[in-house]
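re the bet — no i am not wrong, look at it urself. input seq straight from the record:
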Amino acid sequence: MDIDGEIMVIHKYIRDHYRPRFSELETLVPDPYDFARTVKTIGNETDITKVDLDSILKPATKMVVTVTSSTTAGRPLPEDELYRVFTACDLLLELVEAKAKIVTYIESRMLFIAPNLSAIIGSATAAKLMVAAGGLVSLSKVPACNIQVVGKSHETATGLSGITAKRHVGYIYYSDVVQDLPEDFRVKMMRMVSAKCALASRIDAQHESPD
């Protein structure tokens, strides 16, 4: 959670200082990780068609970014300002990688940290839930109705309809135990699993019944 807080601070710094160059970019690419990579790739380039964004952005988002860049009123940044923006981008990317390493380590220890929760939802999803909640004790205090939205994505399909977008779903919805079912049953299964995860996290927080 501390790393997430630092990422948000740096993300705001990058947005504020890169805004004179391409003010619309922050609304088109809301994810901090993708935004930092996009800023580093574009830099002061005025013709974004010459920039390779295929490995960073989805085709629809890339198309909107390219079209918007051709009409933006932005100006190139001075070299010293661009250097500070790039330094902030590098720092944000390092923090994201550090968080990923921590989550991977926690995932490898989940069978010892939260055996019941891992048995229900799997070690990978259990680790994500615990990290997002700020620890096992914090997760054990979250009601089942809120556990189902932990990890909710705020990403939008830029330029496309949002009718088919899944709302009020988080890590549990995209876990194997839910995704293995036909789509018509997934929301109901997500609610059932969320309730069981709430119980399991409370049991695991007591460290008395690992089986």
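see?? The mean pLDDT is 89. told u. also The radius of gyration is 20 Å. so pay up
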